[in-house]
Amino acid sequence: MRRLLLLCLLALPCLAQAPHQVVLTWVAPTTNTDGSAIVGPLTYTIYQYVNATEATTKVVTGVTGLTYIVTGGLITGAGYTFHVTCTNAQGLESGAGNAAVVTIPGVAPNPPTNLVGTAT
Length: 120
Hints:
The protein is mainly beta. Helices cover 12% and strands 30% of the residues.
């Protein structure tokens, strides 16, 4: 049992997520959907899809700048699609702007081999 546990622990680094990041930048809108000028501050919400098959995940809300760096949970070789919306001072959220599609670079290692478990 201890040997099997040790083998499992040694294999864990193969499953680790690499320290990648995605830098998202965008341009703030200057008008509302009716053409009138935006009054007051805007905040932004970032959404992501993984490999275009999983449900949308809200990464963060309340971003006040025009740049956001996504650092958590990015997996080597995976593809991500990001969308940004903005919310005005009245709390109304826009639709999503264009998509940013990013693939995290790198090649994953082959899986470990010759795993042996011994019952004692």
